[in-house]
Fold:
Amino acid sequence: MLIAEAVHLLDRLFPKGMQQAYDACGLQCGRTSRELQGVMVGLDVTEGMIHEAEQRGCNLLVTHHPLLFHPLRKLGEESRVERLLHTLLEKGMTAYAAHTNLDAMPNGVNGVLADAWGLLNRQALEPLKAPLMQLVVYVPLEHAESLRNALFEAGAGVLGNYGEASFGVQGTGTFKPLEGANPHLGSLNTRELVEEIRLELVLERWKTHEVVDAMKRAHPYEEVAYQIIALEQIAPYYGIGMVGDLPEPLHVHELLALFYKTLGCPLRHTNIVAESTFFPPKITRIAFCGGSGADLWPKAKAAGAQVYLTSEVKHHHFLDVMDQLLLVEAGHSETEIPVIERIQAIIQPFFSTFAVLQTRSSQNPTQYFPSRNETHGS
Ligand SMILES: [Zn+2]
Structure:
């Protein structure tokens, strides 16, 4: 497999159409015309990860954080990013990032945390804007089923936890093949009446190109009559941050212990004001945003969460939320390191003949004093 094919596959698994406007997901650097040797997954591209990838026979690095997040104006050696780019290119490696698109996927950064805590009724805190499209296509009766199958195969017809959703209604279509046409049925300059199905399906915006391609390949007509319509409604499972219900109500100290057990880092939090209006004796609903998400706390509050966990919380955030909800800060890396295993799990089935390895290099640039082992007690 060429790296270009691997990148194409990754673009399907982590659609760039889901990323935030400011982001730079996808291919970061490297020749894509080389043969793929192996894939290594991590949080950040580091010299340690590059060295490890070389030792373990991997030439494609897939990370959560993009190496080229801030645009470069030159390629010298001053900055960490410039030096890493040189090392990657000298070693013939390719780097790829799945960042805010992975944040926005229901099984991405926050989905992993939600799985760890067994959360129910999950919704994004800040859903993606207008993520859905509708495809309407007219197809002769006898080809409706094969077209439907091709569209499902290309990823159309998914509604939350439901797949293969479509609607069809029968009617009569007309057309007249004009000069230059090569019609599937009918003859030149004669109006044709055909029993057709009007087939309707929803699809995510980022799948449009692929679904339309599949539709054209599977449709018998030379000129396919179809419409793509942008929908206004949100799909609450796609977006930044997450809110959900705990499987069982927990006392706040039990909840903090659960966070600590999952993330393994010290937590900073606002005052625990027992049994205030916003703070029930037991917590039932929590919100969180892996990585940096402190500004989203009003959305957590509006979604009915009693607790909001994220990283990179500033002094003013703590002040602002004091009477609103319990704000908990964990480390940036600690909230995202769990997704590395998920990236590997998403990719591996599509690279069955290639190794997809998790990096063993340290992925956390932040350390604590006392160290984690000392605070852990084991
Ligand atoms: Zn991050």
Q: What stands out?
A: The chain has a mean pLDDT of 94. The CA atoms of residues 136 and 200 lie 5 Å apart.
